[in-house]
Amino acid sequence: MINLKYFFIEQPIGKLYLGVLSAEDIDKVAKADTRTTYNQEGIQRRLSETRVREIAKYASGEEAIFPTPIVMSASSKYISFKNQNEMEIDDDRIEADKMYFSIIDGQHRLAGIKEAKSLNRFALPVVIVLDTYVQQDAEIFVTINGNQRPVSKSLIYDLFGLSDKRTVERVCHTIIKSLNRDEDSMIKHKVKMLGYKEAGSNDSTVSQATLVGSLIKLITNNAAEDNRSLEISNKLRELDSNKYIFRDYFIKEQDAIMYKILKNYFNAWTMAKEVVVEKKEKFLYLEKSIGYIASFYLFRAIFLKGKLAHKGTQDYYFDTLSHILKDFKDRFEGKSYSSSESGAKMLFKDLLASAISVQVFDNEFVEIYSKSLGIQNWVAEYEMSI
């Protein structure tokens, strides 16, 4: 028998029993009834192995938390009430009948904890509804999952700034926040720090999430794994420095250098646009998210070229970007780009074409970096990898 002390809640759909069970006990009595072509009474989506692995990694951490209840429907024939606030679940009878409780919400959480071999580590909140029909279970599932709205990534990155731990997101948030506030930054007040314009920031045109997400890509391909490594051992994996150009700075905690380089670049980017692009109404997309995403792609290439020539000043970036944008203006004026990731990639490819056209990226540069990466053509591979 499994004992469950519960709180009783009355809602329009019926009675709910809210309590706490060990993950081990939940795993004994509950299963997810997956909907397939051959099981039209199942209500659960197919288990995502990727999501399970992500949760398993998280569950292995010292500060893992699962505060959201596992919602289950059950038959009352497996439950006996001892008193007003305690019930017994007959797990032996459930196992013999093979009529498990149905997990309405929380299958990935439970599967991830099990994958991490951490069932004995977690006590989880549960909500049990009794003697429901399949249609009622489906309504509960749709109500919980169908109307969920994802939390703004800008807000998530902003909340990382409250942590006192060093994480990829916290460092990137701090750098972008500084670029948006510092007097000597030419993108001051250009960033919607929580994803929307605030009082006094009418000039903001790009979300915090866009810039932080783009900066993260210069440091790592797996921020969550890096954060766990920093928490456990402070040792990070080695990655290709020609793609993750800020990784070494991050590992060495040289955040001020990353900030200085980005400030030089975006100051130059802003000035070059103002000098070269006279008809700004025809190039408004350069001020939007796709313009900033494309500028980050371009930055990586220009940084690599400057690294080869031992250059990285604001003047270097301004001179380089002025040549690129002048050719881009002459060749692509009037062209439109979608306001999506694919639109940003297309914009970058056109900027890259201009960079090659004006010999910012000459044959020598392409050949040297192609050889260092062990590939045939660095530019072609670079375009494919973004």
Topology:
Blueprint: E1 2-11, E2 14-22, H1 23-29, E3 30-31, H2 49-59, E4 70-74, E5 79-83, E6 86-89, H3 91-97, E7 101-105, H4 107-115, E8 123-130, H5 134-146, H6 153-160, H7 168-181, E9 191-192, E10 206-207, H8 208-216, H9 223-232, H10 247-251, H11 255-276, H12 289-308, H13 314-332, H14 341-357, H15 363-373, H16 378-385
Parallel strand pairs: 3-7, 4-8, 9-10
Antiparallel strand pairs: 1-2, 1-6, 2-8, 4-7, 5-6
Helix pairs in contact: 2-4, 6-7, 6-8, 7-8, 7-11, 8-12, 11-13, 12-14, 13-14
Total domain units: 3
- What is the mean pLDDT? 83
Q: What is the general shape?
A: elongated
The largest sheet is: 8 strands, mixed
Uncertain segments are 35-44
Order of helices and strands: EEHEHEEEHEHEHHHEEHHHHHHHHH
Rg, Cα atoms, Å: 27 Å
Widest sheet, order of strands: 3-7-4-8-2-1-6-5
| Cα separation of the termini | 55 Å
- Structural category is alpha/beta
Number of strands: 10
Strand content: 5-15%
Work out the helicity level.
40-55%
| Distinct helical segment count | 16
